[in-house]
Structures are given as structure tokens and as C-alpha cells.
Specification:
- The protein is mainly beta.
- It contains no helices and 19 strands.
- The strands form 4 sheets. A 6-stranded antiparallel beta sheet has the order 2-3-4-11-6-9, with no helix packed on it.
- The protein is globular and about 45 Å long.
């Protein structure tokens, strides 16, 4: 039997960025490693109007998705990318780009320990058909609009459904980000 968790936007735990330059709200974290760092983490970060630098996370893969109204430019020493709302962008967490928002916005982050887990993020429309989670993955749906249901839980815009330890069907008319996390069996 799977464990379904509903994390409402108002229930997220607010924590400062590692570099102190901003704040993020944790949605869910995976099991911890011996060093205390989680194998995976889902969070929503506030991006103000002024440029800032991201925190560096060595050995971490990051999937960054703008979920607010304004796009952002991410700048590294050798390249720059325009991150548009609701379009996932993957990059090495050790790279700490400079972030230049076009206006105040939010970003959904999926961070995984590169040696212990992998993740995929895609924009889905449950109105086109339900999604069933796999038994060997952690799945999350961050709702953009509409509503989604799993088991007895109902998520609305800004909420997140997290499914661990088994399969569950996600139904409804929600549009949102579907996250699939695969944890290595060799991870203790």
C-alpha cells in the first residue's frame, strides 16, 4: 500500500538558502545520508526582483522550474539561459548561477544526490488522463491549476501530492509539474 501525503502551500517549512541570500519552502525530503543531507528534496523558492546568486550543491543534480509569473535569466561564467515559467531546466547543482528575475516570482526545485537518485520533471494535464505512479519511485504532483486527487487527498493550486512506497492513481483536472524520483537500491 502506498503512502500519499498532501502538502498544502500553507504547510511548507520555510528555511534559509545555504548561502543566506534568500529563502525556500520545503515540500518534502527523502531519506538522509550519513552526513545528514537528504537524498532528494522538493521545495519552492522565492525569487525577488533583484539579482541574486544560487547556493552551490556539490554532487547534486537540480531541476529548476519557474512557477511564478515572471521568467528569470540564469547566468554562469560561460553561458546564460532564459528560464520561462513552467518549463523545467536541469543543471549541475555545483554550478551556482546568478539569477536575474524579470519580476518577483517563484521557482520549484527538485534536488537529488547525483550518486543516489535521479529525477524527471514534466508538465502534465490530468484532464487528458490520469497518471499512475510506479512502485519503485517517489512521485509528486505540484498543482498549477485545477485540482488533483490521490486516495482521500485533494490538492489545489500551490499544493503538492507526494506518493511514496507504492503505486497510486492521480485523477482530476489539474495541470501541474509531475516529478518522478528513482532512488538507487544501493543507497542505505
Amino acid at each position: 500500500m502506498s503512502a500519499v501525503q498532501l502538502v498544502r502551500a500553507t504547510d511548507r517549512r520555510r528555511v534559509p538558502w545555504r548561502n543566506g541570500a534568500g529563502a525556500t519552502e520545503e515540500i518534502a525530503v527523502g531519506p538522509g545520508r550519513a552526513a545528514g543531507e537528504p537524498i532528494w528534496r522538493l521545495s519552492v523558492a522565492e525569487l525577488g526582483e533583484t539579482p541574486t546568486a544560487f547556493s552551490a550543491y556539490d554532487g547534486v543534480d537540480r531541476i529548476f522550474t519557474v512557477v511564478g509569473d515572471h521568467s528569470v535569466a540564469l547566468e554562469w561564467p560561460t553561458r546564460s539561459v532564459s528560464a520561462q515559467p513552467w518549463r523545467p531546466l536541469a543543471f549541475d547543482g555545483a554550478e551556482a548561477p546568478r539569477c536575474i528575475p524579470d519580476g518577483p516570482t517563484l521557482a520549484f526545485n527538485v534536488m537529488t544526490d547525483a550518486g543516489a537518485a535521479g529525477a524527471d520533471v514534466e508538465l502534465v494535464d490530468l484532464g487528458a488522463g490520469s497518471v499512475t505512479t510506479g512502485p519503485d519511485e517517489v512521485m509528486a504532483l505540484f498543482v498549477r491549476s485545477g485540482a488533483a486527487a490521490a486516495a482521500v487527498y485533494r490538492a489545489e493550486a500551490g499544493d503538492c501530492l507526494v506518493v511514496r512506497d507504492g503505486a497510486a492513481a492521480l485523477r482530476g483536472d489539474a495541470v501541474g509539474l509531475l516529478v518522478r524520483i528513482r532512488v538507487s537500491r544501493n543507497t542505505g
